[in-house]
Amino acid sequence: MRSSYTGWLLALLLGIGSLVPTAVQATHVRAGEITTKRISNTSLTYEITLTAYYDEIKGRDAARDANQVLFCLGDGVQRQVDRVSIRQLGRGTSINTYKTTYTYGGQGTYNISARIINRNDQTRNINGGQSLEINFFVTTIISVIPTLGLNSTPVLLNPPVDSARIGQKYCHNPAAYDIDGDSLSYRIATPQQSNGNDNEATACQSFPVTRYQLPNLVIPPGKTEAGGSGATFTVNPRTGDVCWDSPAEAGQYNYAFVIQEWRDGVLIGEITRDVQVIVIDGPNKRPLIDPIADICAEAGTLITQNVRVTDPDGNRVLTEGYGGPFNLTADRVAYSPPLLPPAFATITPGGLIAQASPANSTFSWQTSCPQLRDEAYLITIKATDLPANRAVALNSYQSFQIQLIGPKPQNLTAQAVSPATGGSRAIRLNWSAYNCLPPPVSGSNDTPKMLVYRKEGCNNAEPPPCFTGILPGYTRITILPINTTTYTDTSSSLRRGVSYSYRIVAQYPLPTGGQSVVSLQACVSLPQTAPVLSQVTVDSTGGATGPGRGVITVRWTRPLGLNAGDGGGPYQYRLLRAPGLAGTAFTQVTAINTTLAPGVVDTVFVDRGVATATTDYRYRLDFYTTVNGQLTPLDAAEPASSVRLAALGGLNQITLNWQTNTPWSNDSPTRIFRSRRGQAGSFNAIADVAPGTLNYVDTGADLLAFDGVTAGTLSADSSYCYRVQTVGQYADLSLRARTGSIRNFSPIQCAAPGDTTRPCPPALTLDLLNCASLAPTAFCNQTSFANKLTWTYPATAGGKACDQRIAKYNIYYARYQGDSLRLIATVAAPTLTFLHQNLTSVAGCYYVTAVSLRGIESLASNIVCKDICPNYALPNTFTPNGDGKNDVFVALACPSFVESVGFVVYNRWGAKVYESSGPVLSWDGRSSNGGVLPGGVYFYEARVVYAGLVRGGPVQVLKGSILLIRDAQAMR
């Protein structure tokens, strides 16, 4: 029996008809799978193909009689489908193709299957070897969704019939290729069968084949090829390599695995492939392929890769390549129409040209831009040895990936220009036309784009190999049509004396998706044609009117590097002023005409009658040239503010705080001046404060002796006056050479030390939320909130007794963290609690002060802030069909503390179809212009802004997919 069985196996492998027994003519199916593709843009019509591999040794007659196969189309319809072709794959196997078209009545998920009456016999891991009694049944699952376009399942380019040898690792790769560029993954499955006669529902119902075992479990597991205990049977989920390490007994085995098809993270289909492998015993060893590293290349380049095969027995070998770039079917027939645009990959020598071991072949592929896609191409190399004495040939596989990326845009340049429409800053970019594009996507409204990025500062950093998209640190400033070759950056944030680096990236439409390699940088600085401010110093502290009016002196430099195209004289400076450190409400203070002649004093202005005692100011200088007899704005200096100073009396001390907002950096020590005799007294320098420090606490010391020492305890009965002088310089060396060291005085501010009997600060607590313990429904339908404050007043602080004569407590509150807290309530002592009611959010910050009977207020207690427990979730399906149930896409129950929701919906091609913003999300399945959107999978991004402690946040970004289901009636 063993010799007869072994003879049949050899006959099956070698195709020798004289060794075929004639007793079992009904056995024929070895392996197969179902593939599909949608063939109509206007209807849900699909072409469905079963590719079945028949045993031509023991079942030739049965194979020839199998002119029809039962198809189950997944919606209750059964159909007998005719065979459209039969082709030989060697002498032992034929490839039989059955094909039909079918139009589905609506979208949904359909389980398509095909049944063939008999498998070939003696498959050891099915029904104890009696596999003839088991029918062959394979399944493919597809998502019929209009928005998926003309989607196809992957095609499997490597035949599912193999040979293996006892004790050697066996691998199979289906060489799956998805023409749509969808992602593929793989998992082991169990071969299936069905019961029932044709036209019975049970004929389409599958279950695992009888008494099935994985091939490595048919007998007690042997050893792996490397000698480890326990044979294994695995699949690589990324590459699809199915490996049995290693067979322990000869025979015929079947197994199955699933190829899953993914788009944008959503599973849209599955193919089950049923594979047969014949294990033989003998001295022949399989050939070995040297490992091949994955390849990344720009589209349009020629890829060449040496493939080296050695045979341990010294046999001659054949080398073949499988995968989409070869454009060849499993039996090496060219696809028509092709799987992808030409040119196609080749192996030279390859095919039927045998080489002596070691055999060297060259993989070659002249890539092209229409072949661009986001997914890598999988290449499978197959080596087959040709042993002498009619021994069974063995195969080996080696897979590697080729990632095609878009080439970088070329010849980007950047040049500072003067906009024809006026304005002060502009940088014009130019680049060569970008022509490396994938083919248009059928049914997609998305188009290729050119993305323009900018950052401050230039460097020579280049992307790592195979890196696409922009480098870190850049900000996108615009999106342009792909055929654009120029752009002028007129952003108001551009500054003189700063270097800017620009880069551009091509972006391709979905589902191809992806981005090109980033361009080389173009580096440019705006020329220093404009004057720059060099001083804003307070000369006199006072009001806007009266004898004690405030005075500020403003200085600037002359412009440099004026070009003929900038206009000529006469020239004019226009000085503008706005209240506040960051003020933008500029009004003109003066206009100074000048010819820029040497020796003319035209770069200083004394601004009189400004309320420096109470207000700080920001200045801007605009520069005009004469063009065609008209004064025309050429440029504007970066605004600069005066120095703000505040003085606050404390316990035996006075605290100073200051701020400024200038285009130069105040990177030298700030000098502190004090007068013990009011504003009219002499000011002495008492301290220098390190750069970056913006406060100083005066306790009466004098740390600078060069102008006399005025140290002494600060008296609670006296008032002390202060001014500070900041010292800085421009970071740009050319500007620094023009302006030198920049010194500015603040206005004078006066304060008195506090009373020595100041009350002690209270200790505050707040009823904070424990988000982890709150139920999701804790704040359902609640629109008004309250916070309870509790505090204690200490008996001692710092080793000293606290004044216990407290009259009241002041409660201070700020809605957002970082805002100034303001007085909201007063509670008479001895009450130590306060309920803050009628709030729209629990978020906020508080502190409490104690006020003594003498009316002296303590320093602030500890600041306590309370935050929210955000809660927002979205469903993944809704049915806007007008039945009153689930018609609107809204948040799941009880969203909490939501301030606003920005909601954007995209179709499968990445085109925006709907956008809304507001406190409540409510989408009825229509586009932004009111059109009814078809059913299908859409993708959304929701930016949920919560009414939390931080202004404008926290922000939660939710991304996901929505299945929009509507029937035909709802589309009318």
Automatic annotation (TrEMBL):
Domain of life where this protein originates: Bacteria
Classification via Pfam families: CHU_C
Keyword 4Fe-4S: no
Record's keyword annotation contains Signal: yes
Cleavable signal peptide: 1-26
InterPro entries: Ig-like_fold (IPR013783), T9SS_type_B (IPR026341)
Gene3D superfamilies the UniProt entry points to: Immunoglobulins
Keywords, comma-separated and alphabetical: Signal
Protein's UniProt name: Gliding motility-associated C-terminal domain-containing protein
Species this chain originates from: Fibrella aquatilis
Taxonomic classification: Bacteria, Pseudomonadati, Bacteroidota, Cytophagia, Cytophagales
